[in-house]
């Protein structure tokens, strides 16, 4: 079956690729500058470690006399691939935009599977009855739906949201009249998250003892 290939370019990913490479290249240049190299002599352990490094070694070349230099040619070649990836399809008539969108949706589907297993913890399932298993799956699906709604409305990942809201807590104070359940005040960032999902901040006091008449 014939395959059709489409080159996709993501400008945002291109910026991330360039920033990451620039950081590695700057670190590689610093390591080369601090390395004592002499023509015709054996490499030092530091030079061997640099060449074998999985990140820094990619941008290092060796001259005919054995000196290590920055491989500017490879850096330039990699820069041409920033933000680009290749997708294929067996449909010769599908528009390139639809091919790219289908690939992106596939990525989202795979992310849903990962989140169900690791974020929502859909497994293990300890139920035996079919109706309880279905109820368990529906509750997990609803939890994932709430996660996606929160992410879409706030523009943040679920892990970022959890970190932001982590300090929003409830404390119970024991008094002579009885327990008082109180929440701390949300900060500016927490208020922004609650406003984005159209939720009011929790009440300041959730429970407090009811005064009784003196005997």
Protein architecture, described:
With 215 residues, the protein is an alpha+beta fold. It has seven helices and seven strands. The protein has helices at residues 11-33, 45-52, 72-79, 96-118, 130-154, 158-165, 188-196, and strands at residues 4-9, 60-62, 68-70, 84-89, 170-175, 178-183, 205-207. The strands form three sheets. The chain has a three-stranded antiparallel β-sheet, with no helix packed on it. Strand 5 and strand 6 form a beta hairpin.
Major sheet summary line: 3 strands, antiparallel
Oligomerization state of this entry?
A: single chain
Unreliable stretches (pLDDT < 50, length at least 5) are none
- What order do the helices and strands follow? EHHEEHEHHHEEHE
Content of β-strand: 15-25%
The number of distinct helices, counting runs of at least 4 residues, comes to 7
Distance between the termini: 91 Å
Quick rundown:
With 215 residues, the chain is an alpha+beta fold.
């Amino acid at each position: 079956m014939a395959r059709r290939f489409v080159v996709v370019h993501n400008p945002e990913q291109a910026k991330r690729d360039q920033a990451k490479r620039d950081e590695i290249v700057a670190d590689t240049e610093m390591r080369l500058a601090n390395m004592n190299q002499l023509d015709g002599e054996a490499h030092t352990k530091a030079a061997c470690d640099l060449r074998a490094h999985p990140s820094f070694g990619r941008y290092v070349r060796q001259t005919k006399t054995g000196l290590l230099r920055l491989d500017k040619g490879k850096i330039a070649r990699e820069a041409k691939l920033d933000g680009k990836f290749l997708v294929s399809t067996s449909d010769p008539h599908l528009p390139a935009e639809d091919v790219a969108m289908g690939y992106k949706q596939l990525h989202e589907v795979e992310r849903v599977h990962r989140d169900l297993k690791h974020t929502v913890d859909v497994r293990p399932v300890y139920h035996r009855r079919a109706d309880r298993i279905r109820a368990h799956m529906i509750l997990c699906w609803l939890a994932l739906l709430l996660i996606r709604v929160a992410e879409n409305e706030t523009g943040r990942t679920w892990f970022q949201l959890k970190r932001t809201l982590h300090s929003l807590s409830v404390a119970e104070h024991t008094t002579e009249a009885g327990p008082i359940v109180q929440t701390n005040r949300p900060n500016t960032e927490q208020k922004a998250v609650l406003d984005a999902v159209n939720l009011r901040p929790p009440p300041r006091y959730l429970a407090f003892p009811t005064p009784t008449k003196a005997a």
